[in-house]
């Protein structure tokens, strides 16, 4: 796994969070959602190609974290721009 992959996942989550700040968790998960779906489609055609598919799914679960963090950062950034408040305040956590 490269830093470029993690950066692009976080960046895509951040863009989605900026565009739709009301549901950052949903948009963060959606950054990685196609990959497990494609794995299951591939498994339905041939199971011999994915002998360690449970590990692959765990890896996808871990790689969802940068997208979720990026989406929350984007949502907080959107709220700060709209309210013209400081970049971070404790109220943004709750």
Spatial separation of the terminal alpha carbons: 33 Å
Q: Could you list the spans in which at least 5 consecutive residues all have pLDDT below 50?
A: none
Largest sheet: none
Q: Helical residue percent?
A: over 70%
**Structural class, from secondary structure content?**
mainly alpha
Distinct helical segment count: 4
Share of β-strand residues: under 5%
| Mean of all residue-level pLDDT scores | 84
Overall form: elongated
Tell me the radius of gyration: 16 Å
Number of strands: 0
Write the layout of secondary structure elements.
Layout lengths: L2 H17 L4 H7 L3 H12 L7 H31 L11
Quick description:
The protein is mainly alpha-helical and 94 residues long.
Provide structural commentary:
The structure is a single chain. With 94 residues, the chain is mainly alpha-helical. The chain is built from four helices and no strands. The chain has helices at residues 3-19, 24-30, 34-45, 53-83. The longest helix has 31 residues, at 53-83. The chain is elongated, with a radius of gyration of 16 Å. The relative contact order is 0.21.
Which key phrases capture this entry?
71% helix; mainly alpha; elongated; 94 residues; 4 helices
């Amino acid at each position: 796994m490269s830093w470029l992959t993690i950066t692009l996942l976080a960046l895509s989550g951040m863009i989605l969070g900026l565009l739709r700040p009301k549901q950052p968790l949903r948009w963060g998960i959606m950054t990685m959602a196609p990959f497990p779906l494609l794995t299951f489609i591939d498994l339905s055609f041939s199971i011999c190609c994915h002998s360690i598919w449970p590990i692959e799914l765990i890896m996808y679960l871990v790689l969802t974290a940068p997208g979720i963090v990026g989406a929350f950062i984007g949502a907080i950034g959107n709220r700060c721009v709209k309210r013209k408040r400081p970049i971070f305040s404790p109220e943004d956590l709750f």
